[in-house]
Amino acid sequence: MGYVAVKAGEELIERAEELFEKQRLEGETDPVSVDQLDEQLGRLSAQAMSEGGLYAPRLAALAVKQAQGDTVEASFLLRAYRSTLERWDETTVVDPAEMVTTRRVSPAYKDIPGGQILGPTKDYTQRLLDFDLDGEDDPEDPTQEWDIGGEEPPDTLDNVMDVLRDQGLVHEPDGPTDDDPADITRDPVTYPAGRDAVLQALARGETGAVTALGYSALRGYGQVHPTLAEVRVGRLPVKIEHPYTGVEATVTSVEVSESEAVVPVYAKRDDPQFAFGYGLTFGRNERKVIAMTILDASIQLDTEDEPAENPEFVLNTVDGLDSFGFIEHLKLPHYVTFQSILDRIRAIRENESVGAGTADESSRDADEQLAEASDD
Amino acid sequence: MTDTETPRAETSYESVDAVLDSLDDEGLDGYSYAYLDEHTKREVRRSILKAVAIPGHQVPYASRPMPLARGWGTGGIQASLSILGPTDTFKVIDQGSDESVNAANIRRLARDTAAVETTTDTTDSDVIQTRHRIPEEALSEDQILVLQVPVTDALRKVDPSDAANRRRHAHKNYGKMWVHLYENVVEWGEINIASRYPTMVAGRYLMDPSPIPRWDVPKLDDADNLFVFAAGREARLYAVPPNTDVEPLAFEDREFQVERFGDATCQFCGSDDTYLVEIEGDDGETRYVCNDTSFCEKRQDDPELAKDHHRERDVSWGPGTPSEGADATGGDGT
Amino acid sequence: MSLLSADGVTRIYGSGCEACRDRTGDAAGTNQCPACGSVVACADVDLDLQPREVLGIVGESGSGKSSLAELLALEPNQDGHVHGSVEYANHPGNLLDVDYETRHALRNGHISLVHQHIRDGLDLDFSGGGNVAEKLLASGWRNYEDVRERVASLFEETEIPVERMDDPTHTYSGGMQRRVQIARALAINPEIVVLDEPTTGLDVSVQARVLDMFRRIQREEDVAAIVVSHDLGVVRLLADRTLVMRHGRVIESGLTDRVLEDPHHEYTQTLINSAI
User: Fold this and answer.
1) Which top-level group of life is the source organism from (chain C) (predicted)?
2) I need a surface site. Which of A239, B82, B85, B238 has the fewest CB within 10 A?
3) Domain residues of chain B, as ranges?
4) Is B266 a catalytic residue?
């Protein structure tokens, strides 16, 4: 069936959707529940929340289920849903130092105030397929025998970056202006973009794209090779002002990943200080947040020499929804523009009197000339 | 959106369950009229007004994520939904066809959320959303054409930087684009731009008319209707108001030319003054058919039907091709 | 009446303070203000340029001559704090205050700059002809054959092989690129051409030919010019009158022959004696 010249396009769409849905159901097992996804495949829903810019674990798990595991599609569902919601209130600014930390490492120092907290991680696990997971039933909690006596870990920890800033070694970021921070979901980004817009765009960036661009800088297409001051995972309080009393109240908390780095590119000549980079995103995604840190530092250099140092380049390519849509739109019919391109190549071949060429020749010419003409 | 049967989980998230319940309802109940909330629609309308006030100038607006993929008409649908009311009749075409899957999908969203009538007849519609074509039948001052735009800036051909191009527009500095055309002629003997032909609006702003064929570019000039160009991914809106001068860039001695179809006529209606597309048949034959399928059907009933049949005013555009190029295969100009 | 005149032109990079002017300059032996650290690129510069005249500005690097040249040539990059005034015979008001659009219009018909660095002046991906054509197209030429003809004649005039006209500019030699810049600068018959270090990056033999070519055209076309160079040979060849700059100040000026044969200022003497 062609996808145009057929009547009843709407019926076709419904059929296609039903076929897609069937793919999920044609297996022999029970449908996976949203709770199972939320609890057992939390990395997927965390990625969808991070890229969707909406903290809603159960909705994210639902989106992952509906998208059959495609995280970009899931973040798309979340964003489309978010855009229909009314905004009730805005939270007050929280200091990341208030984070209740479950994991925290500082590669810059052997020991730090509050100590290194390895927390839950697979970083040092040997990557061997665990065949016991296939067909497990009634697994046991491997930590149930732990003896957690003694001292409680502190609720909050000093920030390693603050130690360096107190010593005057790190360039101070520009303080907040009196204006409200930019909101890239309400105001389109224009260039040059403020750092508030840059950080939002990176925080919502597609994980693979952020990782790849961050890696490009590290790989040598750029000057930024940071030392991580700290990578943390934990929960940050969400606070609002009470509408009547004006008193700040904590209403919930969100799990975030945070990373900060110093970059030995001196921000100033007369008073040499480290440049820095910062990353923060919803959910547990250390890879993305470290890459974000590199990109933040890299973008602050603001050059056109390397992709990762060019703010426009990074911000214009990092969004998953944008790249997803435009890449996939090539599947749409393009025969109107293609007819126009055919007209150009025929006219020009006629001018240059090459009409009698063989098929091979004409297709070679076509390749060359289409590069000029087919840029829609 | 696909309905999803969500297992009822025992959970403390009451509000989330309420949300899931509302999503379980048939169709799009629970969403605002015309999908977008009123605040957003007002903002889009304001941006459109601004675009009308500065013809050809790209107005940034807060493009919302839509339930369609970006690049698939999300800008167009935001503009359409912001200006449609329940008494309006809506037409959607994609590459000239009402029946393309994507057009059908956009039409379905508007019908389900905005309760509009839909039509395939150009002359019956109040608002037409289109991708890559302007209908053959002349539009009137009561109609609005909303064009979907993938790339908003004509200057992107010569410089990828948005910041640099915004500066050029602000200063009407189009030297680079002219050099691009000049080098085109140097290399190919004529301007080798197929669609997305750079076009000057009201003598001030250079505009990307979206990937319409060159055939459609003259229809923008001194038209009776309003054209709204909307990009979702790039978050820009721009407009050509009625009766605005719109001129494709070209040299005095290397004129703008529309596509040529030689002696070809539409296989179905016999038309020789509409934009045709080639169809490669299973028998190896190339046939030509009208691209505007709705007008083609009308012409099949009445082959004499003019493009401005329903109008007082004559339309001066198309299918003419400047005499320059009309030698061998020449345009079959009227 | 002079074609162009500058009065008290000053350009300071940095925050600037009240002491800046007093504590920099020739007598102070520096262009950096010891109080606030700002760099006084040029200060209190007066000059005038007569029709058809060539004015030389000479000085070592860091003397402020390029900062001054950028201001006189209406460069859009206006960093630093700028004071003073520049009057031009064909435009009312202070050129240092004009908006971008006026600046753009004046640069497309009145005042042309030949940049020191090729990349600032040319788009190396365009053809050589395209770079010259850009000036014509930007000032409203719309006939393709007319543009071709004019570009070809400018190539002939500046002694670039016309058959190279359609090749990408990055395939040209350094001397040819400099000639393309000059052709571009002359394309729309400007009143004034500002040449910033016209010999940078060229072999000595190429330098002489480019300068000879420019001198010939300058006389044929009766165009006035300001030539900025660290090289006394360049001003000796081209300039009727010369200003000598040091630490952002004009320390000596006069007819070129007089300045070079009978330098009054000690620094000028050193400069001449140290020239090879």
Assistant:
1) Archaea
2) B85
3) 30-248, 260-306
4) yes
